[in-house]
Design goal:
By secondary structure, this protein is α+β, with helices and mostly antiparallel strands. It is 33% helix and 27% strand. It contains 14 helices and 23 strands. Strands 3, 7, 8, 9, 10, 11, 12, 13 and 16 form a nine-stranded mixed beta sheet that branches. The protein starts with 20 loop residues before the first helix and ends in a 10-residue tail after the last helix. The structure holds 5'-O-(N-(L-cysteinyl)-sulfamoyl)adenosine.
Length: 453
């Protein structure tokens, strides 16, 4: 992409309404625009990051053998009356009437609808196990939408639903989700700690939230400092292997880690004093096992070989895809702007032309742009007629992990400059070597290796 042809409405001033750094930086970097309380337009740069996160979520869900579907945003109230949640959900649910005076709602989650799909098409235990998921817009009429897209009213969420014959199988689905979530967050450059949580309106008593530690987090959390030493690393997980998934769950949840809703000071007292920590965290996902709560209420049964009918065991599992952008920025920024982890960056590298209009500099930039693009990478070339200082400030603000700086002086010596946004470290390299280095960095995280179709 050439910046002169792009739509990147960066702001010079710090927006007064934004209380947290991620919200400020998303507005300043021209990623989003507020349209109403908790409701945003996604401008090109923000939309690109949203798509990157969505792709990672799809890839990791498909690896775990979960099947993507898409359910409608506007749903009939009737299904929600069957489960009893039309009344229970309270004011968070946005209720709508159509021209026939029928009750509709904007989906805050989709347990009812997915259970309806299941009961209409599945009747034999042989079709189990089954996990369906979607990535879809949700609406919750939050009392206090705030922190930009982190607590929006309209937000983008991955919601997955497992259907299993027995509790034991459903707990394997729970564990499988936990493993796939750890992998997902890690690819986004985040450490998200699973913590025992409260199930709220979803129901059930087996639930974990995933929290990213950040000063601006809305939840207060209590944990054994050893949990932050756990890293998921490059594990090869066989999702069909029950004991392997159970082992990961045990490893990541046996140390004390709870949110304020489930915190138990007596249990916490057993953690050695120097390891007792409390902090704030951003909830980026939650997994639930709730057994037969919805399947019984809505008649989602399967029949075994002997003709016995039984309600299926279910759970649901959510990732806050849009909220994650805020969490990533909270965890990765400096005074000059965002620092994108390579796995989610909107463009793989910036190209700054120090002397636009200089034939040699222009040619060198074009050549870099072509070679990077030919490798499947997306450069953002700042080809505007602007001062170098302004170009650097824009690149720092939008946070691309790598910047290539091209100018007549370097070109005389046959080199361009490659700078890491994170460390600030620069090195001079022949253009060909710089391209190779970038290709190697991105190849190591499988950029371009997209499974969802
Ligand atoms: N049905 C279950 C699992 S699909 C469910 O709805 N879970 S949830 O309520 O925990 O939501 C899943 C994730 O969506 C949360 O962990 C959070 O990261 C994100 N989320 C929830 N509310 C909002 C909101 N108002 N703004 C942005 N993200 C949100």
């Amino acid at each position: 992409m050439k910046l002169s042809r792009y739509f990147l409405p960066v702001l010079k001033e710090t927006p007064a309404e934004a209380q947290v750094v991620s919200h400020r930086l998303m507005l300043r970097a021209g990623m989003i625009k507020q349209q109403a309380a908790g409701i945003y337009s996604w401008l090109p740069l923000g939309f690109k990051v949203l798509r990157k996160l969505e792709n990672i979520v799809h890839e990791e869900q498909i690896k775990a053998n979960h099947i993507p579907i898409q359910m409608p945003i506007i749903q009939s109230a009737d299904l929600w009356r069957e489960s009893g949640r039309y009344d229970d959900y309270g004011q968070e649910m946005l209720r709508i009437k159509d021209r026939q005076d029928r009750d509709l709602l904007y989906t805050p989650t989709a347990e009812e609808m997915v259970t309806d799909i299941f009961r209409s098409h599945v009747s034999s235990y042989k079709d189990l196990p089954l996990t369906l998921y979607q990535i879809q817009w949700k609406f919750r009429d939050e009392i206090r939408p705030r922190f930009g897209i982190m607590r929006g009213r309209e937000f983008y969420m991955k919601d997955g639903y497992n259907f299993d014959l027995t509790k034991e199988d459903a707990l394997h689905s729970y564990n499988r989700h936990l493993v796939s979530y750890l992998k997902t967050y890690e690819r986004m450059g985040l450490q998200a700690i699973p913590m025992r949580a409260d199930s709220g309106p979803i129901g059930g008593d087996n639930t974990h939230e995933f929290l990213v530690l950040a000063e601006t987090g809305e939840s207060e959390v209590f944990y054994d400092s050893k949990v932050t030493d756990l890293t998921f690393g490059d594990r090869d997980i066989n999702y069909a292997d029950k004991s392997a998934c159970q082992a990961v769950l045990d490893e990541f949840t046996s140390l004390y880690a709870r949110t304020d809703e489930t915190h138990d000071p007596n249990l916490f007292a057993k953690v050695p004093k120097e390891r007792q920590k409390s902090a704030r965290g951003i909830e980026v996902g939650q997994i639930f096992y709730f057994g037969t709560k919805y399947s019984e209420a809505m008649g989602a049964h399967v029949t075994d070989d002997a003709g016995n009918k039984m309600p299926v065991h279910m759970g649901s599992h959510g990732i806050g895809v849009s909220r994650l952008i805020g969490a990533i920025i909270e965890a990765s920024h400096d005074d000059n702007g965002i620092i994108w982890p390579e796995g989610v960056t909107p463009f793989h590298c910036g190209i700054v032309n120090l002397k636009q209009g200089d034939p040699e500099a222009d040619d060198a930039c074009e050549a870099l742009y072509k070679s990077l693009s030919a490798l499947g990478l997306e450069p953002l070339y700042d080809d505007r007629n602007e001062r170098a200082g302004g170009k650097f400030a824009t690149m720092d603000l939008i946070g691309l992990p790598w910047r290539l700086t091209v100018g007549p002086r370097g070109l005389k010596n046959g080199v361009v400059e490659l700078t890491s946004r994170k460390s600030g470290h620069s090195e001079e390299l022949p253009p060909k070597d710089a391209v190779e280095k970038l290709a190697a960095i991105y190849r190591s995280i499988n950029v371009g290796d997209f499974l969802f179709n």
